[in-house]
């Protein structure tokens, strides 16, 4: 079976001007390679500034790599062909709730991608929006709601609806659920797992939460200062981590709390 996504030696350098000095170059991502199978879930973990968002942006096409190539179903993705990318790979951003337009109804926002990417009639587009709302646990009535009329959990469902509406092969999420209440977060994660099973979508997500990662990920990619330092199955990294950082990142939040508690008691 060929891999759905193959990332080959992609890297990213940013240049920025610091006053009158010559432009500075920052290496956000050293060349990395990995592949993702259909329906597989990959978690990206690492400290702040380690390159997680950079990987997410390069895969989704929001940034162009400084070197390397990305293949989808064996076909080279053109970094500048947004239409091709936009259908097959969708991104849910870190501040996804703020990405909803407060002045447009949910229905209109969902119709937008269909207008630009399909040749369907108005009635077909509307029907597809209703079906998608139902897929994410919302009602056809929500079509006419404005974002402020929804709870944050429902708004997150709209963001997921927007991500799946073109039936993509891959969803990339960059710490998209960190701001949600733990109970709502659990519901949203379970929704994604259900959609993944129904639609065979591969899911690549950056997360700080060992609980979510252990619950959801088939494989984990560990980043440190722009380098991939480990990439293996969740099981392998839990039972036999080669790096101390992997061990620390995967230590459960509860265990961390318990350790803090015992040290303060001593
Ligand atoms: N637009 C940019 N211009 C300059 N440097 C950037 C830019 N975006 C990210 N970086 C740098 O690249 C590195 C990796 O950033 P990022 O991928 O956002 O890390 P993470 O998501 O793991 O916190 C950081 O050192 C960051 O400062
Ligand atoms: Mg980030």
Automatic annotation (TrEMBL):
Segments traversing the membrane: none
Keywords, in A-Z order: ATP-binding, Nucleotide-binding, Transport
Gene Ontology biological process terms from the UniProt entry: transmembrane transport
UniProt cross-references to Gene3D superfamilies, sorted A to Z: P-loop containing nucleotide triphosphate hydrolases
Keyword ATP-binding: yes
Superkingdom of the organism of origin: Bacteria
Protein's UniProt keywords contain Zinc: no
An example molecular function term from Gene Ontology annotations: ATP binding
Domain ABC transporter intervals: 5-250
UniProt similarity note: Belongs to the ABC transporter superfamily.
Protein name: ATP-binding cassette domain-containing protein
Biological source species: Pseudidiomarina gelatinasegens
